[in-house]
Amino acid sequence: MTALGISVIIVNRDRPDWLMRCLRAVAQLDYPQFETIVVACPAGEKVARQAGWARVIACDRANISAARNMGVATAQGEVVAFLDDDAVPEPLWLAQLARVFDDPEIAQAGGTTLGRNGISVQHGAARVDATGQSYAADTSTTQPVVVPPVGDQVPRLHGTNMALRRSLVLEQSGFDERFAFYLDETDLTYRIARAGGKTMFVPKAVVHHASGPSRYRDAERTPRHVFEIAASAAVFHGKHCPVADRDTARVTFQAERRRWILRHMQRGTLTPDRAWALIRELASGYAAGCERLQIVASSGPVREATGIEIKPLVCRDYYLDASSDAKAIRTEAKAFADQGHRVTVFEYRRNARYHRVTYTPDGYWLHTGGIFGRESREEPVFRLSSHAERVQQTLSRLQGIRSKNPRLTAHET
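^ Glycosyltransferase, sequence as received from the core. Prediction below:
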């Protein structure tokens, strides 16, 4: 059976180093029929062209919806999948997403997005209401599951880990370019769900999202600018919220964001002057968003897909134990990764430190922590275990995520 053709679209702006890391991980995806499209500013365009195998589209406009539409317009896959440039996918990410589209009723799908430590869940299954407020959906399963609407809440996806049928994106005229940043993917997936398209949550379609610095936040996630966040909230309210409820939606949004800014000020990450400047931005940005509602949304991408060539899989999977000589194992891991293979290194020590998972700049996965510490944040803070037991536990968790049958020996899957 021919694999579903998928186009992976990555938008980059002012983060060339993060893009390089993302592209290295995408090159290790275990899926036979996909293409990579990078829509980037000049610095990112240079990095993407150096990668040599991604299709690159120049875009020096600070508008993520417009950039994503440019990617969709040139995409050749039946499905378009999206990653942020500060994210890295697990090797089986696309394979897990692709299988749910065998059901023609599935319009869109998303997976589990992990935070900076590579363990804690940043985004899972979710729904959104007409005000743009998100709610976690209860999906305690490791198997794909349909997320149904509940009351006035419909399923939503997160832009750093989502896949949609391209034909339905075209039907909806793509991303609304009045959303320059924030709620852009929420608006599109909300429209698709409201039109009757089914949304699937795929737990083992895993992406690691580092939340890198940008013009909107610094490396510690302290806000730099909130103008576009407020403008997008106004556009969302104007498009989807009943007229009688819009004023309440505006007040609720501004109060929540004001508390968020003041918490940063209380922690000392924002000065009082900067905090009050951001609070003023909330009002001016929201007013600008209301003005954007008078602008007709763009017609979006129109190009027809033509199909993707099947690529041979040449990677091997290596799982290496660095409990004895970590330096030597890391050198070996880098050498394997430079040859194009997928590599995982376990550096577990005899302590109770929490586990972390990192995709290194050298192109391999690094697991660190204590054999007595917790990996899943639901585990006890301390538990007796042997080194072999902890490694085996991680290997079991990675089954279907990083490879089909991970083992602590060099092997080919």
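The first strand starts at residue 6 and ends at 12.
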